[in-house]
Amino acid sequence: MKTDTLLAELTYKAVRSSGAGGQNVNKVSSKVVLTFDLTNTLAFTDAEKERLQTKLAKKLSSENLLILTCDEDRSQRKNKELVTKRFLALIEKTLVVPKKRKETQVPTAVKEKRIKDKKTISEVKQNRKKPDF
Predict the structure, then answer these.
(1) What predicted TM-score, i.e. pTM, was given to this entire model?
(2) What pLDDT band is residue 1 in, cutting at 50, 70 and 90?
(3) C-beta of residue 84 within 8 angstroms of C-beta of residue 7
(4) What CATH code would you report for 3-95?
(5) For the chain, what are the domain ranges?
């Protein structure tokens, strides 16, 4: 993953935040909207793009745009840093290919213990019956 190329391709837009905050909310554009075009990026190989498209399918718009927002802080700069960190973490997390699970055999001792437990339970139940003279 080429982080420098990736950061150069990001588009930021400042928008007015919603919610409580009084007059400050109406005047200041502190909310930051990050937009990333997945189809036209040069930072990823075709295989990585395909993986990102499948993993982030629910978060992508119809034009394959990834849109993230942040309005946690009153500072526009801080919100921009937060949304960028969140974006990079999301990309790193989705690009990780999980290891394939290697099937293992059930150990012999476990099999023997299970059979022994079955026998003891069976004996307990047999001892509950009335004796046959």
Answers:
(1) 0.72
(2) low
(3) yes
(4) 3.30.160.20
(5) 3-95
What's phi and psi for 67, nearest 5 deg? -120, 120
Distance of alpha carbon 53 from its chain centroid, rounded? 13
More confident residue, 22 or 78: 78
- Local confidence band at 28 (pLDDT 50, 70, 90 cut-offs): confident
Structure token pair of residue 56: 């982030």
> What tokens does 6 get?
């990736």
User: What is d(CA 1, CA 122) in angstroms, rounded to the nearest whole number?
Assistant: 60
Measure Cα distances from 29 to 44, 48, 69 in Å: 32, 34, 13
pLDDT of residue 66: 93
Give, in degrees to the nearest 5, the angle at Cα 89 between 84 and 94. Answer: 130
Give the number of residues written for the chain: 133
- What ranges in 1-133 are assigned the alpha helix state H? 3-8, 23-27, 46-55, 76-95, 108-128
